[in-house]
């Protein structure tokens, strides 16, 4: 027994020495770790490392209500070697960079509608694509009527900044021709067919109208790449059009509002005399979708898996995911995930598999 204690004491001593050395050399260790991090981010092509297929990631899973764990709504889509984003909520451009989905690789952006939380980062997105990659052509942005006005506003706001950066870094680093965006405006008529807004070899992107009254227009997108499919809802209430467009898709990325949790917010606001918030918590109920309704629509559409984003209200702890979902899992019967920033679904071509990871969790290692 005495030998055992001596052995344990020796092990403890070695561990203590190792920890002490780690503490003494912590700055050098941190510098080495920093170098490895940047080697990963800058010396490799993150899209080339992905298997050929469709990949969907949350660069922002939140909504207008503040949530320290969630940026504003943004969905990254990788189709083959093309990177796209749908919407650009506050903080989402930083998440793209942290997820090693660099804005300079963007082929195009799509906008679902013009609520502020869906467009807040458009200026930063355009800037990072331009400056990070010495882009010679503006970012293509697709969206319904109103896009020209929105993009012009961001470009006007960044005009002075544009001049500073060209003057400081030079035209070789910041080519003036690459500043801003070029708009591709389409009309998605509620009484008309879905609109094919982008087509490339193996890839089709469709837009279709959804219900977000009084917001007009508001659209969702369907991505098809080499037999793999995903629908991204944008903001919407219950929508027959979405059920039709989502028929048989592999992944439905859908907004979600929990009426029972919003009711708690409303009750607290009433007791605190915050009448403006009381009205807001009441008004938002009729142009978003409860998780149970999403589950029923996904089941009717024959969707394979559901990922919730644009989470309302904020869920600061995972224990609230159950109350948020309510009976959704029982209604749908298939895999259903409450999204968090960094969540990443890989849908390899020629397969029915969906592989999940989180590209922000790597930063915690």
SSE inventory with pairings:
Elements lengths: L1 H23 L1 H17 L10 E8 L13 E6 L2 E5 L5 H7 L7 E5 L5 H4 L2 H12 L5 E6 L2 H11 L1 H11 L11 E6 L8 E6 L2 E7 L9 E7 L2 E5 L7 H6 L5 E7 L1 H13 L3 H9 L7 H11 L3 E8 L8 H5 L2 H5 L3 E3 L4 E6 L6 E4 L7
Parallel strand pairs: 3-4, 4-5, 5-6, 10-11, 11-12, 12-13
Antiparallel strand pairs: 1-2, 1-14, 2-3, 7-8, 8-9, 9-10, 14-15
Helix pairs in contact: 9-10
What's this entry about, in short?
The chain has 365 residues and is an alpha/beta fold. The protein has helices spanning 2-24, 26-42, 92-98, 116-119, 122-133, 147-157, 159-169, 240-245, 259-271, 275-283, 291-301, 321-325, 328-332, and strands spanning 53-60, 74-79, 82-86, 106-110, 139-144, 181-186, 195-200, 203-209, 219-225, 228-232, 251-257, 305-312, 336-338, 343-348, 355-358. The chain has a single domain (51-364), classed as Ribonuclease Z/Hydroxyacylglutathione hydrolase-like (Metallo-beta-lactamase, Chain A), CATH 3.60.15.
Characterization of the model:
The protein has 365 residues and is α/β, with parallel strands linked by helices. The protein has one domain (51-364): Metallo-beta-lactamase, Chain A (4-Layer Sandwich), CATH 3.60.15. It is 37% helix and 24% strand. The chain contains 13 helices and 15 strands. The protein has helices at residues 2-24, 26-42, 92-98, 116-119, 122-133, 147-157, 159-169, 240-245, 259-271, 275-283, 291-301, 321-325, 328-332; strands at residues 53-60, 74-79, 82-86, 106-110, 139-144, 181-186, 195-200, 203-209, 219-225, 228-232, 251-257, 305-312, 336-338, 343-348, 355-358. It has an 8-stranded mixed beta sheet. The chain has a 7-stranded mixed beta sheet with strand order 7-8-9-10-11-12-13. Helix 3 (92-98) links the parallel strand 3 and strand 4 (106-110). The longest helix has 23 residues, at 2-24. The chain is globular. The two termini are 38 Å apart.
């Amino acid at each position: 027994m005495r030998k055992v204690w001596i052995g344990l004491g020796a092990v403890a001593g070695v561990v203590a020495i190792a920890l002490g050395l780690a503490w003494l050399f912590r700055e050098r260790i941190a510098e080495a770790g920093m170098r490895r991090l940047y080697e990963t981010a800058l010396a490799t092509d993150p899209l080339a490392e992905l298997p050929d297929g469709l990949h969907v990631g949350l660069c922002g899973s939140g909504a207008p209500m503040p949530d320290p764990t969630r940026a504003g709504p943004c969905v990254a889509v990788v189709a083959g070697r093309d990177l796209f984003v749908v919407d650009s909520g506050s903080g989402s451009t930083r998440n793209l960079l942290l997820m090693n989905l660099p804005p300079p690789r963007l082929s195009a952006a799509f906008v679902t509608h013009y609520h502020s939380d869906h467009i807040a980062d458009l200026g930063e997105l355009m800037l990072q694509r331009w400056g990070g990659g010495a882009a010679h052509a503006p970012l293509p942005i697709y969206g319904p009527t109103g896009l020209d006005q929105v993009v012009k506003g961001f470009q006007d706001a960044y005009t002075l900044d544009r001049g500073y950066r060209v003057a400081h870094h030079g035209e070789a680093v910041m080519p003036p021709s690459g500043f801003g965006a070029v708009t591709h405006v389409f009309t998605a008529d509620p009484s008309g067919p879905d609109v094919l807004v982008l087509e490339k070899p193996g890839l089709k992107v469709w837009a279709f109208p959804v219900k977000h009254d009084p917001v007009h227009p508001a659209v969702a997108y369907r991505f098809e790449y080499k037999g793999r499919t995903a629908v991204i809802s944008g903001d919407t209430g219950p929508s027959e059009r979405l059920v039709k467009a989502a028929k048989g898709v592999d992944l439905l990325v859908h907004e979600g509002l929990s009426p029972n949790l919003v009711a708690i917010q409303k009750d607290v606001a009433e007791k605190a005399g915050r009448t403006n918030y009381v009205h807001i918590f009441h008004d938002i109920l009729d142009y978003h979708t409860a998780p149970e309704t999403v589950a029923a629509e996904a089941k009717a559409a024959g969707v394979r898996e559901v990922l919730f984003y644009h989470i309302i209200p904020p869920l600061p702890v995972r224990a609230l995911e159950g109350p948020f979902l309510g009976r959704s899992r029982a209604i749908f019967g298939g895999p259903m995930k409450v999204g968090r920033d960094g969540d990443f679904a890989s849908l390899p071509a020629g397969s029915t598999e969906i592989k999940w990871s989180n590209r922000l969790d790597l930063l915690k290692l």
